[in-house]
Amino acid sequence: MSHISAFEKLDLELIKREKMHKEFSFADQIRAAKNKRMELTMEASSSVHAANKKPGEYA
To answer: What are the extents of the domains in the chain?
Structure first.
């Protein structure tokens, strides 16, 4: 296994990120961000709903 310096490792990570940005259009990136936000909002709202239920309440 070869030794990779911290700078080389950072360069590799930067190249990977740039490649990913090129593979996905800006519209795709926005769509993914909106979907993730919606997913997190749904999880948060279901957590709040579950926390507000009385003991023994199922629905």
So the answer is: 7-50
Tokens encoding 29: 């990136």
Instruction: Write the CA distances from 5 to 12, 19, 25, 37, integer angstroms.
Output: 11, 21, 32, 36
Mean pLDDT of 52-57: 66
Q: Which residue pairs from 18-24 have beta carbons closer than 8 angstroms and sit at least 24 positions apart in sequence?
A: none
pLDDT of 57 higher than 50: yes
Rg of the Cα atoms in the chain: 21
Among candidate residues 29, 31, 11, 32, the one with its CA nearest the CA of residue 20: 29
